[in-house]
Amino acid sequence: MSQTTSNLLYLVTIICFVLALRFLSSPATARRGNWIGAAGMVIAIAVTLAHHGLHVGWRIPVGGAIGAAFGAVGARKVKMTAMPQMVALFNGVGGGAAALVSLAEFHILAPAPGRLHTDVGISIVLSALIGSVSFAGSLIAFAKLQELIGGRPITYPAQQVVNLILIAAVAAAGITVVVGYEHQWVLVTLLVGALIFGVLFVLPIGGADMPVVISLLNAFTGLAASATGFELGSNVLIVSGALVGASGTLLTLLMGRAMNRSIGNVLFGAFGQVQAGAGTSAAIEGTVRSVNPEDVAIMLSYAQRVVIVPGYGMAVAQAQHAVRELADLLEEKGVQVEFAIHPVAGRMPGHMNVLLAEANVPYTALKEMDEINPDFPQTDVVLVIGANDVVNPAARNDPGSPIYGMPILNVDQAKQIVVSKRSMATGFAGIDNPLFVDPKTAMLFGDAKASVMKIIADIKAL
Amino acid sequence: MSHYAQLVVELTILALAIFLGVEVISKVPALLHTPLMSGTNAIHGIVIVGALLIAGFARPDLLTGWVGFVAMILAAANVVGGFVVTDRMLEMFKKREPPKRDQKEGK
Fold it and tell me: Are A13 and A236 in contact (CB under 8 A)?
């Protein structure tokens, strides 16, 4: 195949990818868009295989088959509640592939020092660096989300100093390569340093901050792919990488805004330590009113408008199917049921939406925060399931609170609130929640799924 | 075209792609942010093109050979896993079925 024909077909791939993202603007077209994207990928792979001088050999089929098998099995078998981990994992392997391609490309192009164009050198260095950080960081994110290592921020003394030294060393290695000292070991050092940095970078970030981290790592892999495109002279990689980089960056900024914290604070602030210094936040006074499922069943049946607020706790308890059953039951009784989704509820952007969709909740019932906040004063009952910080009024009322300024779901404006929680333990942020002592609030203690099942049974018995 | 002229063309394409990316992504509703993450994951699997070129090198030395092989595994996992997972997620997003309340009056 001639170079021109190849480039033309790669252009078709680019168009397919853009369409895939464009069709993601609505659930009605999204699935079709994904198929178009997949078709584009197949075209790109076929064109590359037809590349002049490419020797298929054993590495391509065997490597491809092994990878495809892992990908397919992992993708089919994973539970929706484990989706954040899978996204992190698939993101990481992409970054790893980009870094390895750069390593090999360097080895092929520059067996003797001094033969690389500067821009190719820069592309190789950037791709190896960013790809490695993304690979290692994604694996740590996977481990944290899968709870193989603790979800709490893991910090150690002189952490920032170590990070800075590492960055400096990696940058020095990169510059060394670019200016012409193109020995293999320098690039390998850079790669190893970047891997270590990736680990140390994600380790201190807490579980609930994962939405920001995963989005950022997604952006990184996109950047790495783009850089690889520069070193190979491949437009399809450059463009695809840019699209992914833009997407990841946008989501990262959105998540940061939704938590009202700067990205810097999330990534380097080791949030768990902030609480220790915030002694000025108002102490929570008041008693907590506890109810049992029968009471909640009555409250819900006689309501006209009910809003359910899902949080990570619902995912942990695997309660999404029970919740949907409850919503259906209430709807049959003429109660209007909607779901209020906070942007950072869960462990990744849109996490709650996917869980509820899996449970067959129609997506028209899922409302975004800005859309549903004005409706709370007219809402009879709000049922908070496994969510804590996203409904904490201290974010609105208490300037001393660590989460002050974070946009929240104003559930305290509703007529009645029921909070389903395992115990009075604080949420991830370790902050007390004045919502729990609000006179309009009732606490339903116990496992979310068990509680919801009891409520369903009690409603049926009414 | 000289090497650096080609580079300028590529940088132009990059700049346009970034703007395009921002525009297209900002139209994706929060509802679909998870499929967006997983869909863009699949798209960056395009690095498989690079992996194919490396793994398809006619006479690789030991390093290139193994690096290419591992890169193929990683990239293939990215591609297949990414598109399959995204499809699985998007399959679940359904509209409301016709309400069952037609037969009932009030509570």
Answer: yes
- Please pick, among A209, A389, A412, A432, the residue that the annotation labels catalytic: A389
Run of H or E including A421:
strand A416-421
Chain segment A165-209, per-residue pLDDT in tens: 888 888 888 888 887 776 788 889 899 999 999 998 888 887 778
Chain B hits for A368, CB-CB cut-off 8 Å, are 29-31
- Residues whose CB falls within 8 Å of the CB of residue A250, separated by 6 or more in sequence, listed in order: B22, B25, B26
Among A130, A246, A17, A238, CA closest to B7: A238
Closest approach of A285 to chain B, Cα-based (Å): 36
Name the residue range of residue A338's domain: 293-461
Q: The domain spanning residue A419 has which CATH number?
A: 3.40.50.1220
- Indicate yes or no: pTM above 0.90: no
**A300 interaction partners in chain B (CB closer than 8 Å):** none
Nearest to A198 by CA among A85, A88, A344: A88
Angstrom distances, CA of residue A292 to CA of A270, A458, B41: 37, 10, 44
Same domain, A224 and A335: no
**Of A226, A75, A143, A172, nearest in space to B50 by CA:** A226
Please count the structural domains in chain A: 2
